[in-house]
């Protein structure tokens, strides 16, 4: 299910939702066609590029009945394809992606008519082919499970949260030096989520508790031990209406203006916390199960997405949601071992007729493998735009994301996996572009640098490692220690 929260400023205070809608998305299946876009390997791929090939491996595909959604295909091509003059096909030759050498030569001769300049799409076409598959190199190693790993918006900082009460903030631009070593307060089970404020001054962290704590990360103190070296202010999301029930918070996010927090909890609710008033300004009982994830659909902060239970298309619960940032498309990771792409505009207030999928098995994702007989099941009212398979979503709430807009045009999606790997898929074709293997335990979170071909993966094995595409194949300057390299790409 999804939660839409609209806030027309002319009708209500900035913090109060005016219209709320709860319901599944709804698509017109007749409008869906079929098309295929494939990645091809250039002759010089082995020299300069990541080795991205054209074939998809078994178990990795897009469902044909949902493959072609003309708008998302077109938008992705516009953001990540070079000028048509660069890609003119020579008669009798197989069409290949435009090489970097050809584009540079074309720019120098003003081939595209842009005055010797690359467009944003030209840049994305080149940068998106240098995938972060080299390595890995060790960033840090802890003796407890890693649950959260996130770059700041500008990529200058990196935040990692561990089950053993530690949250570390690394300064990426200063050799991954630990800028803040936070020992969390009143931690229950683990750090479930963290969020850095837009101005990068404050960090909030959540656990299986109604208390979210906020830390001043801009202070000069490196060691931040709760209420010993620094104060970690507690933000109480509980109320008298809870009747003493103690719930946990799975997901927490700053609003784009830094004035609010939105959170998803184990009491089936979405919360909005007003930081200026220092109180909960909204609680919505949005679902009938745990709200595992929340995010904003766009930069306005007027539309919130949440995930719980079963989306119309997923057969099992949703573990994570990531928005494309355009208020239209988002992806969800599901315990049915798939990622699905959705168009939010197709939602309606009238859910389709209830239709339970018949299951002849009992299963709990926390400690059981996914039943083989369930892998080919499909929801009869699947309204997603596309489905991606190959990774595994077990044991924990594994996260998935769109690749960065600036460097890749969001032409990929990527995810951690229970099989200790990171998977990268092509958004349009569904091909499994790369599988990064190093870890020995589930990869709950991973994050792609917003500007450079750098990806950090964190695992329950305690390792925080960096994957890159260095310019000349050398070890990155920021690296501490080279770790055993095991990666596959197609």
From TrEMBL:
Pfam families assigned to the protein according to its UniProt record, in alphabetical order: WD40
Region (Disordered): 45-66
The keyword tRNA processing belongs to this UniProt entry's keyword annotation: no
SUPFAM superfamilies: WD40 repeat-like (SSF50978)
Comp. bias intervals (Low complexity): 50-62
Keyword terms, alphabetized: WD repeat
Matches recorded under InterPro entries: DCAF, WD40/YVTN_repeat-like_dom_sf, WD40_repeat_dom_sf, WD40_rpt
WD repeats: 242-283, 311-352, 436-468
PANTHER family per UniProt: DDB1- AND CUL4-ASSOCIATED FACTOR 11 (PTHR19847), LEC14B HOMOLOG (PTHR19847:SF22)
UniProt protein name: LEC14B homolog
């Amino acid at each position: 299910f999804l939660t839409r929260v609209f806030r027309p400023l002319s009708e209500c205070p900035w913090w109060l939702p005016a219209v709320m809608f709860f319901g599944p998305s709804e698509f017109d299946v007749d409008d869906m066609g079929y098309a295929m876009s494939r990645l091809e390997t250039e002759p010089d791929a082995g020299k300069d590029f990541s080795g991205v090939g054209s074939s998809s491996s078994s178990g990795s595909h897009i469902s044909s009945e949902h493959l072609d959604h003309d708008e998302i295909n077109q938008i992705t091509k516009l953001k990540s394809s070079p000028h048509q003059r660069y890609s003119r096909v020579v008669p009798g030759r197989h069409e290949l992606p435009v090489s970097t050498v050809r584009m540079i030569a074309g720019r120098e001769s003003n081939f595209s008519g842009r005055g010797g300049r690359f467009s944003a799409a030209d840049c994305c076409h080149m940068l998106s082919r240098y995938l972060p598959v080299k390595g890995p190199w060790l960033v840090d190693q802890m003796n407890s499970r890693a649950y959260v790993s996130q770059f700041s918006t500008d990529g200058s900082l990196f935040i990692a949260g561990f089950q053993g009460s530690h949250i570390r903030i690394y300064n990426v631009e200063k050799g991954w030096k630990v800028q803040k070593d936070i020992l969390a307060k009143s931690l229950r089970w683990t750090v479930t989520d963290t969020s850095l404020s837009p101005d990068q001054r404050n960090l909030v962290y959540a656990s299986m508790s109604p208390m979210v704590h906020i830390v001043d990360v801009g202070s000069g103190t490196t060691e931040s031990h709760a209420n010993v070296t620094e104060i970690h202010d507690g933000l109480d999301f509980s109320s008298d209406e809870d009747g003493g029930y103690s719930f946990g918070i799975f997901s927490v996010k700053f609003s784009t203006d830094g004035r609010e927090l939105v959170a998803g909890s184990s009491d089936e609710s979405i919360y909005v916390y007003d930081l200026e008033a220092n109180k909960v300004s909204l609680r919505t009982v949005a679902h009938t199960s745990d709200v595992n994830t929340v995010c904003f659909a766009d930069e306005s902060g007027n539309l919130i997405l949440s995930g719980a239970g079963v989306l119309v298309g997923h057969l099992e619960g949703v573990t994570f949601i990531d928005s494309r940032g355009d208020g239209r498309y988002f992806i969800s990771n599901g315990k049915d071992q798939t990622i699905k792409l959705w168009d939010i505009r197709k939602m309606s207030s009238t859910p389709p007729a209830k239709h339970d999928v018949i299951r002849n098995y009992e299963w709990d994702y926390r400690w059981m493998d996914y039943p083989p007989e369930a892998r080919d099941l499909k929801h009869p009212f699947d309204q997603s735009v596309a489905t991606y398979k190959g990774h595994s979503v077990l044991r924990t709430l594994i996260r998935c994301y769109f690749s960065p807009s600036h460097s890749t045009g969001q032409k990929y999606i990527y995810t951690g996996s229970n099989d200790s790997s990171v998977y990268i898929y092509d958004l349009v074709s569904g091909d499994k572009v790369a599988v990064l293997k190093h870890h020995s335990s589930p990869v709950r979170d991973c994050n792609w640098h917003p500007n450079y071909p750098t990806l950090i993966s964190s695992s329950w094995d305690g390792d925080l490692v960096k994957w890159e595409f260095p310019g000349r194949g050398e070890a990155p300057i920021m690296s501490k220690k080279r770790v055993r390299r095991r990666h596959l790409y197609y």
